[in-house]
Fold:
Amino acid sequence: MRKNGFKILGLLFVAFALIFTASCMGKFAYDPSVKTSLSEEEARLVAEGGSEMFTNDDIYFAFDSSMLSQEAKHTLLRKDYYMKNNMGDSVTVEGHCDERGTNEYNLALGERRAVSAQKYLVNLGIDASRLETVSYGEERPADSGSNEAAWQKNRRAHFVIK
Amino acid sequence: MFKNRFKTLICFTVALVFILPDLCCADYDYIDINSPSMRKIPLAIPVFKSIASNSTEARFSKKASDLLAETLDFTGYLNIQDRKAFLSDPQKDGITTQSINFQNWTVIGSELLITGGVLMKGGTVQMELRLFDTFKGTLIVGKRYKGGMIHQRQMIRRFCSEVIYHLTGNKGFFNSKIAFVSRNSKRKEIYVCDFDGYGSKRFTFINSISFFPSWSSDGNRLAYTSYKNGKPDIYIQSFTEKQIYQINKKGINMTPSWAPNTDALAATLSFSGDQEIYLLTGKGKVIKKLTNNRGIDISPTWSPDGKRLAFVSDRAGSPQIFTKDFRTSRVKRLTFKGKYNTQPSWSPKGDKLAYTGRGNGNLNIYVIGVDGKGLAQLTQNSGSNESPTWSPDGSLIAFSSTREGPSRIYVMTAYGTDQRRLLAMPGEQTNPKWSPEVNN
Amino acid sequence: MKNNGKAIVHLPGMPGKGPRTMYASFTVSVICHLLFLTVLIFVPGLKIPKRTSHSVIHVNMVARPAKGTPAGTRYRAVLKKSAAKTKKTSEGVSLKTVSAAPKKKAKSINKKPVTHSKSTIEELKNEAEASRPGDVTDAIERIKNQVNETDARRRSVENSDKELAGVEDGVAGGSGTGAGLSVDILTLYTYEIKDLVQQNWAYSEQLADAKSDLQTFLVFEVLPNGEIRDIWFTEKSGNRYLDESAYKAVIKSKPFPPHPVELSRPVVEVPLRFSPEGLLD
Structure:
């Protein structure tokens, strides 16, 4: 009876340990779907697009989230490429939110969005001193509409060359 | 034998059935009345008596009595009775205890009566105002005021404070103000108006985004967040002195909240790379960190005794309201219903918090007990309702709402009744903050 | 409830343990349960209707002149005058007055009574306009306002809606099984009085500055002519404001309608328990 109890406890412990390590692994594991560099074709486009393309190319977020999607990460590769080829440029990353939340929380969330984009670029090798962040919360929407399409456009990190 | 026992049993049971309830409820079978029909106390305010009875004086009397009625109506717990129902006219019958036939008032349901007399002499106005308990036929409070005609509002408000003080034992809110944010195109400026929306004045002239005002306990200063220098920083500005203090650390500096009765405030700063709430001096120096958690920690609000702090954190995966008790340093989650609860505001009595919650896509005002019990939704089906703030006596809540299109400031009772717009001005108004009640 | 009943029955049956006793206990238990239930059906008038609305009770007691809200006093006075002047319809007027006033509360329950009460108001308006047009329109205006105010209380009324059905059933069942008719009339009369008092009860939690779990108990005696003979508190809440507000509610409601003719009693005692707990519904 008691032995069984210990067994079950042991099993539970092992199971939890496994789940825990697995969930931690996820964060560091190599994800083959995320490319670490641009294709030649895309690199050429970025170079041609110059600063105009750089500033018009926002990254987007899910509601109440500052996690970078695959697509966002790919967009950040283009930012990375541009910044490595325009070493003189310093950039401000603006974090924005849609209008649905409350102002205060959105201001905080906007900062987290800007910071997660900034950190990703730093991890790709951009010097942190070239990247500043500012949050505008819901104060500067890209689209002033009150519908899902507008909200989607507004949940963004926007890049401005100083 | 069987029959006998049967009979005894029946008698016994019947007796018990009839006696037991009686034993429980003393002598009477009380009928319950557990919900009053009126939550407002009927108050009669006849037009004030014009003592010299000339036309300017009579006009002034009418205006002053209307203003008194309007101001007391604002409390949300007095029912100002229609003058058409009145059976007596104090203009003829007199305004003092001896000359009032209180039956004339009780019979139309008045529980309270305010009479006034106005005498104008030269440029000065003398006003005497009396509050009566009609059922006891006694004077509750009487006051005489002297001033110029322009002091009408002041005199009336001062008497309103007396009335509320004598009825409730607290000072009311007739000397309080409301700070709010008004947006015109892309600019947001902070404004201040009286508790009833009267006399709004612009407070900031920054031509940028300025919001999240917070009153110091003495009502002399406002702390707020502004993009004056291109990013959100905190500014501490006095109504009387020119000196402005800044908190402009790296990252965001936002949602200042003045600690009760001390020259210190809590605010969210992110210079460490993470948003945390800090305690700061009234001049903007960091004293210490109050929260410690990776993630969003914002919108602090103090308990009236200053021993606890409520704030918004996303540590549970979604924005929820937490409280921290400084005596035990324990942090407790307060809200569990819904996935988006922000903008907490601690009630002046200390027993409740109002906050903004999101459900079915809309923001609404909720109230919850400090113990997490007694959750009540105060607004519904009326656009987006945000930023609740308590009147200093805890009887009213001001908030912003988009129920009529552009965002405006509204007021309701702490139970959600009597919702009405506070002011009408161009642009959009948000972020109301009620000041403490200051004696003047 | 059920357990209590069983316990009572089993106690005397304990000494003898034969199957016969068992059988007896069982029968007795069944009978007692039945008895208990029947009693429950009789008594409900006294216990169930925690939040009765007057509409149902009032409909049965239509012959009483309406009182109630503060404005009602004058309203009634006006109507009496107008009724006296237009004598041929005087009875009709007083009847309709009753249904007009109480039914305002029914507005939120369903739509029928509203149209009815409105049309009654219309009729009254027409009839009374000749004598005192200003006052009547005022009164009507006030009643209309009250109707609007009632909206705010919609929720509590809707709650009581369900209970109302129960009351109706209980009353019907009671008289069906041959309970004394006068008991029903007494109950209905006291409930009518309770409704009038409730309508006049103004209580503000702001003024009481207290929690809503307070209660105060008072009793008053109503003479056959509807006057109050005596009021006394059997238990005070300790909160002076609540006690006074309850007292005022009774005083404001007097005089009450006279006793129904069928009720031959020198005095009717009305014991009331006031508790503001419903405020936070």
